[in-house]
Here is the input.
Amino acid sequence: MTEMLVALAIVSIAILPLAYSFAQENKYLRRCYERSVAIEVVDGEMEILRGGGGRQFTNGVHTLTTTARSATNLPPGELRLTLTDKQARVEWLPAETSHGSPVIRETTLK
Here is the structure.
């Protein structure tokens, strides 16, 4: 009986760190996925702006709404466009810092 308790204790000590590492890896992979989706959305909006879609906006800061279906997989945040005379900046800013870092793209407009 004692051997069984010692064996269960050893197995428990070995399994608990593994379970914790799997949970941490799951969170890390989720953040990586959310960042890749944010990059995809920001790059798509930048392509639209470079193609002439930004003519409807005036200089200043604007909140963009995207039609990208992948944006539903993003955590809460804001897609922001900042226009100056020759520069355009599109950035995705997560509402909480635990959901990753901002994704920023800048370009010179023609």
Remarks:
- The first helix runs from residue 2 to 50.
- The chain is about 45% helix and 25% strand.
- Residues 2-108 form one domain.
- The chain has a mean pLDDT of 89.
